[in-house]
Write a structure and sequence with these properties.
about 170 residues, about 40% strand, binds magnesium ion, binds inosinic acid, alpha/beta, 3 helices, three-stranded antiparallel sheet, about 20% helix, single chain
Length: about 170
């Protein structure tokens, strides 16, 4: 089987959009501090890039939930790494995700975190496959809305590969 990747969102487009989202967060969270809850591993690149442009006091926390095996969603999630309740309780939390696809992962993750009484809770995603939802779920900050295609790069992987690409590309497998 041969693989190729075509650029869908360039490094420049990503950088520009990340700065726009950061500016929005800076404005909306002025006078507060923010806890970025990065969903490993896919959102690592997005979280780092976003955090560099935040001017409000910023804290980083990590969570790992898994709903994917290969390119098919299983419809359930497994918590591989959880965040301490005191790291989100009373904090202004923004869950940072790489992509919302079926919505299943974030639906569960958001419910879990909401149960720990954050001062506020929002979701920021680099990509939104809005037409692919199986559960109703909306991101508060969305980088790019894309179609139903499997993408890699800027944190996104296929079986752990291609996360380190500086752009987001569509994976073609023949
Ligand atoms: P959801 O639960 O279907 O919304 O799945 C979200 C998770 O599936 C993301 O955090 C990704 O890890 C993974 N995922 C969904 N679509 C893609 C894709 O196109 N490329 C890589 N990973 C994806
Ligand atoms: Mg992910």
């Amino acid at each position: 089987m041969s693989e190729s990747i075509s650029v869908l969102i360039s490094e420049e487009q990503i950088q520009k959009r990340v700065k726009e989202i950061a500016a929005q967060i800076n404005e909306e969270y002025a006078g507060k501090s923010v806890t970025l809850l990065c969903t490993l591993k896919g959102a690592v690149y997005f979280t780092c890039e976003l955090s560099k442009h935040l001017k409000v006091p910023t804290f980083l926390e990590f969570i790992q939930a898994s709903s994917y095996s290969g390119t098919e969603s299983t419809g359930t999630i497994t918590m591989k790494l959880d965040v301490k309740p005191e790291a989100v309780c009373g904090k202004h939390v923004i869950i940072v995700e790489d992509v919302i696809d079926t919505g299943v992962t974030l639906y569960h993750v958001k419910k879990l975190i909401a149960g720990r009484n954050p001062a506020s809770l929002k979701v920021c995603t680099l990509l939104d496959k809005h037409d692919c939802r199986r559960v109703a779920f909306e991101g508060d900050y969305v980088g790019f809305t894309i179609g139903d295609e499997f993408v890699v790069g800027f944190g996104l992987d296929v079986d752990q590969r291609y996360r380190n690409l500086a752009y987001v590309g569509v994976l073609h497998q023949e």
